[in-house]
Specification:
Elements: H1 3-20, E1 29-33, H2 37-43, H3 50-69, E2 74-81, H4 89-106, E3 113-118, H5 126-137, E4 145-153, H6 155-172, H7 177-183, H8 186-190, E5 204-207, E6 226-229, H9 239-250
Helix pairs in contact: 1-9, 2-3, 3-4, 4-5
């Protein structure tokens, strides 16, 4: 079907789908894995796969707008894993530039969300880490949708860092390490995760591109999260796809392991 015909029909379907979600359960915290940028670029005929990252980066602000419309409270965007830090310089450098530009764009003034960059920023190039912190810092106190951008992020590394942070805080306060070992509980980790929102769980994790694995994303927070895998590359992800995901979430019975 030609786009000139398909788009108006899709808009009608979009409105109808959105209306059916009114009053239904919706996730508070959505984690999304922005996957398939390079494959999209190759299949679209681009000789430079960076075009996929550029197109994917341009999609982020649009997606956050959909989340605001759907009354989502928190979003975590998985943009770069700690495993990706070892990519060749000719790949990593341009990718880091696109991620930095994307964070600057979504941190611009007048947007209805507050941005925080999470992950092992100390493992990033110093200039990139500084630029990311500076951009996100401009949104501090803005309120609205909470947006965590995961860069240089690994779920296992986050748990290790949370344990270290809990012990360091206890030591700095003059506490007895042996007592902390005896008392150590899940709350010590939950209280020391990268995000400062105080929300230690994700309700819904979406992965684009058709891949069906977590790849280390929000390992602690996703213990009872609902999963949704979309057979669409991130640059092609539409609001219709997002609304269908929310419809899937609304139809599930969440038992939290009980």
């Amino acid at each position: 079907m030609p786009k000139v015909v398909r788009r108006p029909l899709e808009a009608v379907y979009e409105r109808r789908l959105a209306s059916t979600l009114e009053g239904l359960p919706r996730p508070e915290h959505v984690g999304i894995m922005l996957d398939g940028n390079r494959r999209w670029a190759r299949e679209a005929g681009h000789s430079d796969v960076r075009e996929g990252y550029r197109r994917g980066g341009a999609k982020v602000a649009e997606f956050l707008g959909w989340c605001v419309q759907s009354k989502i409270q928190q979003v975590t965007l998985f943009m770069l894993s700690d495993d990706n830090l070892g990519r060749p310089a000719e790949q990593f450098g341009p990718l880091m530039e696109i991620i930095t530009e994307t964070v600057r764009d979504v941190s611009a003034s007048g947007l209805p969300w507050e941005v925080q960059v999470i992950g092992s920023l100390d493992l990033l190039p110093a200039e990139a880490a500084s630029a990311l912190k500076e951009a996100a810092g401009r949104t501090a106190g803005r309120g609205g949708l909470k947006v965590d951008v995961a860069v240089g992020y690994g779920g296992r590394r986050e748990i290790v860092d949370a344990v270290k942070a809990a012990f360091e805080a206890h030591r700095a306060a003059g506490g007895d390490p042996e007592q902390l070992i005896a008392d150590f509980d899940v709350e010590h980790i939950s209280a020391n995760l990268y995000s400062d929102t105080g929300r230690d769980h994700a309700d819904f994790v979406i992965r684009t591109s058709g891949e069906q694995r977590l790849s280390g994303f929000l390992l602690w927070q996703s213990a009872y999260a609902e999963m949704h895998f979309v057979d669409v590359y991130w640059p092609e992800f539409r609001r219709v796809d997002f609304l269908r995901a929310l419809r899937s979430y609304a139809g599930r019975e969440r038992r939290y392991g009980k």
